[in-house]
Amino acid sequence: MQSVKDKVIYQVYVKSFMDSNGDGKGDIAGITMKLDYLKRLGADCLWLTPVFVSPMNDNGYDVADYYSIDPSFGTMEDLEVLISEAKKRGLGIMLDMVFNHTSTDHEWFRKAIAGDKKYKDYYIFRRGREALPPTNWISKFGGSAWEMAGESGEYYLHLFDRTQADLNWENEDLRKELYDVVNFWIKKGVVGFRFDVVNLISKPDVLEDDLNGDGRRFYTDGPRVHEHLKELARNTFGKHHDMITVGEMSSTSIENCVRYSNPLEEELSMVFNFHHLKVDYEAGDKWTLKEFDFMELKKIFNDWQTGMEKEGGWMALFYNNHDQPRSVSRFGSDSKYHKESAKMLATSIHLMRGTPYIYQGEEFGMPNAYFDDISEYRDVESINYYDILKSKGMAEAEILEVLREKSRDNGRTPMLWDDSDGHGFTTSVPWLPFAKVPGISAEADLASSDSIFNHYRKLIELRKQYEVISDGTFMMTDMENSHLLCYLRCKGTGKMLVVSNFYDDETEFDLDKLFYETSIDFRKCTFESVLISNYYDLAKVGEIIRIRPY
Ligand code: TEU
């Protein structure tokens, strides 16, 4: 397995990155056009969200053919060109494998529905109970997780949209088909894979009602998941010693993530977990409005950083992806302190123990969408929840307010390359409206002497330069501080302190107190010892450092 410790990965949400042919949708040739920009940033790999043939009910996470490129994204040749052009610049391409489910348009599912026994067993079909579905499980996108298959009285399981049918990983032929898919793409020259919700692939043999939940406790980190991942690795990427793999883990635990990512287990290089991105959910419910709980965020970071380190696990570091609101709007400021907070957030996460991911547009502080009308949304989950909240009696204005904060479309608006009408993204109408925060674009950011882009570039350089960043131990300090996230990284004689103010007011950090707590002495640090900061001057007063907004 390739060492991922000094790598930085850039996520491309293909549909919103760059439209090369003027149809309003981003495509593979568009990514090739922007390779020099990505090279300049300094990331090592690009993870592309799914580009395979799909009816696009969930923007490609509903795959109908794992071996072909969806025409809206381009051709196989476009992908081959991207892989080789990226390689010339020292960039690797990672593909997104959606193996928990296929689209109901997939040939396997069509055959299954037509009654072909072989393919029926590729999916999870069960008989209903009278007029009720087989269990009370709830789909992640709302409503029952079961859909009636024609008139047969049988239902198929779908943990996501009803057009995303869950695969039956208990079937050996199915597993082999999936290994063939992975090996096909390895031959094309990709350097790694992201595996979509891969901790949900193993369901129990007997499916039962969940009396006090939505069913997730039965299939999350399910009974044979580690066995399946080991077998997948052995038959595909594990045979090559330099591949990078990351599993997306839904509602997982530290204990399982250690097993998924400890090299001795021979499963994956690293994991995504989402606990830190639920600190603005009221009682675990995403569709609520709540200030983020900073103390909870600190606690989760501390638990995961130390828990993973202790047992040799490795994690992805991120605030943003295509399923999340934009971090600068969510945890920082997209107005007065836009630059300061974008840089603070970047620093706070990049210098932890793990592999940082940068989500397109994050490198110049892309904000939330700020849509005011339901007609502007495209995301299947957002539209489902609009209806669900409406049926629960929530007022229209309040629903729109919740969507403004929580919708996945916040992270999916097209790239703001410049300030022109099509924002350098398209020459026609974009498939999803642009974010409504004027003045923010890659071009404007790069033109300024204190660009957010350069801050990210510097963070990437530092990771390559200092082992204390790529391989140091992690220790949180000042746990009780309600404004500052503070941690130490240590490797041999190398010591690094990271102090991030998550608020727009001024506070102080006491180096003297830190010395008495840890016996690590930063008190003689001079301006030259500051590796990176979002303010030019280190405002130092004796042992007390003045910490300005964000
Ligand atoms: O997401 C899995 C997932 O559970 C979420 O992050 C999901 O978006 C969230 O629970 C909604 O509140 C992955 C993909 O990243 C996502 O885009 C897909 O829609 C989903 O799997 C299904 O393939």
From TrEMBL:
The UniProt keywords, alphabetically, are:
Glycosidase, Hydrolase
The molecular function terms of the Gene Ontology recorded here are: alpha,alpha-phosphotrehalase activity
Q: What is its EC number?
A: 3.2.1.93
Q: Fetch the CDD domains from UniProt.
A: AmyAc_SI_OligoGlu_DGase
One Pfam family in the UniProt entry: Alpha-amylase
Q: Does the keyword Signal apply?
A: no
Q: Which residues form the Glycosyl hydrolase family 13 catalytic domain?
A: 11-412
Q: Does the keyword Glycoprotein apply?
A: no
Top enzyme class, one word, equals hydrolase
* InterPro entries to which the protein is assigned, alphabetical: GH, GH13_cat_dom, Glyco_hydro_b, O16G_dom_2, Trehalose_TreC
Name used for this protein in its record: Alpha,alpha-phosphotrehalase
Q: What is the originating organism of this protein?
A: Youngiibacter multivorans
User: What does UniProt list as this organism's lineage?
Assistant: Bacteria, Bacillati, Bacillota, Clostridia, Eubacteriales
